[in-house]
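re: the backbone from monday

yeah here it is again, tokenized this time
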């Protein structure tokens, strides 16, 4: 390959990378929620997970170097999200055109996520009779899954919930993330959200 051919190949590769980065950025912007490696790979038409990861991490660094209220983050389970930085959210969240949930259902959703798997009865006991309507709304919205177990109805949040709020799909990690969120907002989880003892953690602490 001549020097000229090599230069042309490098320019072509650089242009391809720019286009791929733009497509990933567009996909994250339009989705408005975390996207996994497969979804991002489909956007730029590649099956190479490494290529997607490398490009997404370039995008992360790009946003770190920009003076912008937005950021690209890598989450658990090889997912990436384009979102507003936390320090800007309190001042502009009221401008959202269509909030997904009002305060009541949102608190019921947070309770379910923090206590899952939890029975519907436990939720109603903690949140009041109005929680029946909240649960129906949450199930209809695809945020909560409800299944029967004998006379009980067991509630869990869905993967859509995790993706929408940028949380891990792993329930244990999700609960830790929720606890950090509550701590950032109020220095402690809201009433009813105190973390239950982790038996495994307690056993580890007791070992010499």
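seq for it, each position gets an aa:
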């Amino acid at each position: 390959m001549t020097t000229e051919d090599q230069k042309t190949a490098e320019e072509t590769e650089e242009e391809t990378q720019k286009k791929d980065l733009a497509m990933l950025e567009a996909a994250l912007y339009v989705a408005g929620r975390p996207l996994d490696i497969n979804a991002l790979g489909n956007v730029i038409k590649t099956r190479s997970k490494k290529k997607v990861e490398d490009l997404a991490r370039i995008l992360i660094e790009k946003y770190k170097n920009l003076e912008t209220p937005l950021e690209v983050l890598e989450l658990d389970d090889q997912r990436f999200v384009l979102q507003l930085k936390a320090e800007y959210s309190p001042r502009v969240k009221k401008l959202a055109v269509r909030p997904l949930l009002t305060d009541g259902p949102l608190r019921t959703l947070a309770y379910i996520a923090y206590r899952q798997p939890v029975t519907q009865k436990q939720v109603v006991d903690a949140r009041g009779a109005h929680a029946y309507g909240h649960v129906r709304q949450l199930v209809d919205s695809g945020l909560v899954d409800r299944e029967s177990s004998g006379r009980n109805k067991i509630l869990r949040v869905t993967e859509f919930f995790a993706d929408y709020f940028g949380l891990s799909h792993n329930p244990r990690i999700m609960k830790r993330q929720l606890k950090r969120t509550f701590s950032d907002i109020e220095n402690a989880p809201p009433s009813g959200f105190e973390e239950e003892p982790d038996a495994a953690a307690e056993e580890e602490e007791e070992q010499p």
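The longest helix spans residues 3-31. Residues 10-89 form a domain with the Arc Repressor Mutant, subunit A fold (CATH 1.10.10.10).
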